[in-house]
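Possible regression after last week's pipeline update?

I re-ran a chain I had predicted before the update to compare outputs. Posting the input and the new output here so someone can diff against the archived version. Not blocking, just want to make sure nothing changed silently.
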Amino acid sequence: MEIGTHWIEQMQTTIETMRRRCIAYYDQGGRVFSRIATAVNRGREIAEPAFKDAQDYAAAAMAITDGVDKLNTDTKNTLVELYLGIAVLLVGAGCGELAGATSLAPILDSIFHPTIETLLLIVVPIHAYIVTKKTPAIDDIERRVLLFKACAIMGILTGHLSSKVLSLVPAILFLQPLFLGLILDNALIKTPFVSDRYSYLGAVGVFSLSISVLCAFLPLGRISLAVGAFAALHALFGAVHFQMTTACLHDKLFSVAEASLAYILPLFFTQIVWANLFGVSSR
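New output (post-update):
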């Protein structure tokens, strides 16, 4: 009888302890969710005005219609240097994609898991941005070398993760920023397009699109609709980037590293998505 009574008391004690612990866990979970909700609300209060300001700034930038020939010499030289530099970075990225999908593929297969490569693809541009932004002593040559290495590494990882990017012919990516720089530099190539901004951007888009499709015909042996559509999207993105960059230059918010990464990273992301949707694997 005593054993049964003792056993019942132990069960009651255990149930009561479990009940109290459940209540404590429930209260703790409620406090955590309350803190999360508070943080989300605060983040929303900060993000919404920032997004609205960014939206208004982008709309104002896209509304700029002044002819590019009216830009002062320093601004024009900065833009030419920026886009020719981006063209060089995209050459490195294109070569990296070709190497990652072909010659380096067996080596990368034996070293990296796709998850690690994906993480590296995220970490590499973040590291490049932090180094260029937080290191005041870095000079122009070191910055260019760092960005080129980052683009080449990102290209290798992208090409290895998805060989479908080869079907978009990454070797032609540099044409859009190249024409943005060359046509803008009217002292190098005399053109009538710089007197009007829309004529300039339209000429850059037409030239880059036409030559991209023709150059893509050489390795593919056919006119690719996916390549043509991606080249048109690239031309549109280049025009938007040019408008935003000129607005930042006007407002003294310009940074070469930030402008370069703002061009390359969305292009990489769009290329990966486009290749997986419409590309063909080379393996």
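Follow-up from reviewer: compared with the archived run. The mean pLDDT is 82. Marking as no regression found.
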